[in-house]
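Dear colleague,

Following up on yesterday's call, I've attached the two folding results inline so they're easy to grep. Please treat them as preliminary; we haven't cross-checked anything against experimental data yet. The first protein's sequence and structure tokens come first.
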Amino acid sequence: MTKTSYSSGDAIADRRAGYARMLAADGEIAAAAELMQQALELVPEWAAGWDVLGDYYDKLGDVAGAISAWRHLEALDDAGVFGARLKLAVHGAGPAGEGTAVSYVEALFDQYAPKFERALVGKLGYRVPEMLDELLAQEMALLGIVRFERGLDLGCGTGLMGERLRGKVDHLEGVDVSAAMIAETARKGIYDRLDKVELVAALHGRRADADLMTAADVFIYCGALQPVLAAVVPALQPGGMIAFSLEAHDGEEAVFLRPSLRYAHGVAATRDALVVAGLDILRFETVVLRLDRGAPINGILVIARKPPLEVTAANDGAGAGGDVAA
């Protein structure tokens, strides 16, 4: 069963779940939860139903009920499509785990793809690609860069970042974990190459051939930043640049999982991670990324650079034939 497949396979259970959705839409969450519980008594192995029930309980403030529902979900959803592990972690009922919850992110954006731009740009005031592009253009001017040879847009989505990059890059690649997102952006003809692949897997074993990488609102699904940067740096040419965004918090934690199931990164910890990865920080700005339920989401925009190769004289220092001080 995929995340978008709602049917339980039982007509009566589906009917009760349908009524529950209507009640929830009208704000009758307690009644909706009761009907979903009745539906699940008929089909106790219906993963999507347990996901919905957990969300209803969560909206009611019944944390114990939500955790119980998501425990059932976790046991039924081996692939992790519904993000039960993440939901349990947010409520202190388990660890978030390491790295990206790939199956959850893939299912989320496969479902979201057809309405992605309308919702994100039209309703939430999303401007991250525009803001990153502005910072990138400023750094290009300062460094005397006219164009990039090879660009790699990580988590390219529907091509919002790629549209900004196209005029700056000779050969532009996009990668995304969601096939539906890849299909949406393929229609636009922005990229020279598109691949459906998780970003760390896309970078693993790659030659150091990219002189530009971008990741607009991508690392917010990846957890700890250090492993991501450890994959990014070897794939950059010396002197190559990376531009990316993060959701931010001002606490001491390097990273924590928000109720939105996105990760927020600490400002100081992010700076440290960039230095440890061997990157030179060119721009580091805190901004409002977008709105979420009417509230601003604070974030970080980063432009960083892999140090260029240093050219040294062949006979520098005590080289062959040189004089050595006694």
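Below is the second protein, in the same order (sequence, then structure):
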Amino acid sequence: MERRVAITGIGVMAPGGTGTKNFWNMLSEGRTATRGITFFDPSPYRSRIAAEIDFEPEAHGLTPQEIRRMDRAAQLAVVAAREAVADSGIEPGELDPVRTGVTVGSAVGASMSLEEEYRVASDDGRLELTSHEYAARHLYRHFVPSSFAAEVAWAVGAEGPATVISTGCTSGLDSVGHAAELIREGSADIMIAGGTDAPISPITVACFDAIKATSPRNDDPGHASRPFDGTRNGFVLAEGCAVFVLEDLERARRRDATVHAEVAGFASRCNAYHMTGLRADGKELSEAIRAALDEARIDGTDIDYINAHGSGTKQNDRHETAAFKASLGDHAYRTPVSSIKSMVGHSLGGIGALEIAACALSIRDDVVPPTANLSTPDPECDLDYVPNTAREWRTDAVLSVGSGFGGFQSAMVLTGPERSAA
């Protein structure tokens, strides 16, 4: 019989408050964490806003050596992984190292460290030829994103499969989906899985400026991220990370663990269409949703809440609205839909994992987080997007979706522990 996969631990590092509790309090209160960029002087750029984490690595137990060798995104992942393992109730000595694996999703890798090292080696870009003598000795680790998985594995003592998934903005979602499949097929009993990115650097801001994907609403950063709103004009860049302990459901029951949710179904598709463009009909995303529902063995009418990708770009919000209608039919009009990017911004490869965390917490509390800053209806986005205020709502089965540059479309179905007990 195919194994079932439980989420028994959650760790979060997000804008607006580190730790899972602070993250969920912010979402359920509808507060936003977007603000003017403080990491560098943003004045030369079109979009000068972001959702930054107030993160002091020393305060979270990282040693000077760890801080020196790890990019900020890796630091976030290690801290979140430690919280997730503690939340799971698994003692370090209880882990079978070779049956415990790691998957980490990241879209842009160690971009902050790479930019800083280039700045030093090139004398702020003045030198056409750079010298390795000026670079930090850990530069190679920044070039190789697999170092993220290695750092998390070392932190938790995992010696099983260790992988970095990099599929653009679906990386965090795909990482957890891949981990669940490894457990289902018997390659691991426990997986430490999630997504992380810390991309708030000049090069990343400049790249999104060039394609006008980010919002230029610099005079009102707290209201700049407006998914599904008729006045939306792009997403707000962010950093963020969420990591989970996934384990075989029967194993979790035997040790009387708290099951936050079950990863009941997952699927991914590619539109093979355009690097950044999306088809208006949402065909590939709707197919991913149907496949995830099939794997979960539930019908679209069983979905109680949809956690949308909801980036706040014109094309994305139309695209996934169409996908929800195509996959869920009339039930889409009766299902609450919301985007937490309205509050925590878009952390690229990290956001899909943060959205899974929001879904698991929504299942736990029967609360749907709102879409903040939604005040102007868009006729093309005509579903129930839970504007501005969280809603008490029975959430036994939740759908979370992601869409990434390159044409990636992913969907995951999470169900509550009551269903898991069946």
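For the second protein, one point worth flagging: The chain has one domain: 5-110+145-417.

Best wishes,
A.L.
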